[in-house]
Design brief:
There is one protein chain. By secondary structure, this protein is α+β, with helices and mostly antiparallel strands. It has a single domain, classed as Protein of unknown function DUF2790 (Spermidine Synthase, Chain: A, domain 2), CATH 2.30.140. Helices cover 17% and strands 34% of the residues. The longest helix has 15 residues. The chain is elongated.
């Protein structure tokens, strides 16, 4: 199952690169979208917003906007399993 998620993550990351946006943080500088990898050391002091859970079945992109311990605003894009899959 983990291998399937990793493969889906790689597939979705290519699509995610096309969608770039910026959010202004406390320092009024635009934040660029960062793409999550397992090697990242995250510094999340406060979560500002999170994308709503998807009703799709399968691995879908999601985003979280947060401030780090230095007050810098970040947008992190990652993959999650959608809620639309039935348990049968």
């Amino acid at each position: 199952m983990k291998a399937l998620v990793v493969l889906a993550l790689v597939g979705v990351s290519g699509v995610a690169l096309a969608a770039q946006e910026s959010v202004v943080g406390n320092n009024q500088q635009p934040a660029k979208v960062e793409h999550y990898s397992y090697s990242m050391n995250l510094d999340i002091a406060q979560v500002i917003s999170r994308s709503p859970a998807s009703d799709a079945c399968g691995v879908v992109p999601a985003r979280i906007v947060y401030d780090d311990s230095h007050g810098q605003r970040h947008i992190l894009e990652y993959s999650e399993l959608g809620n639309g899959c039935s348990g049968s």
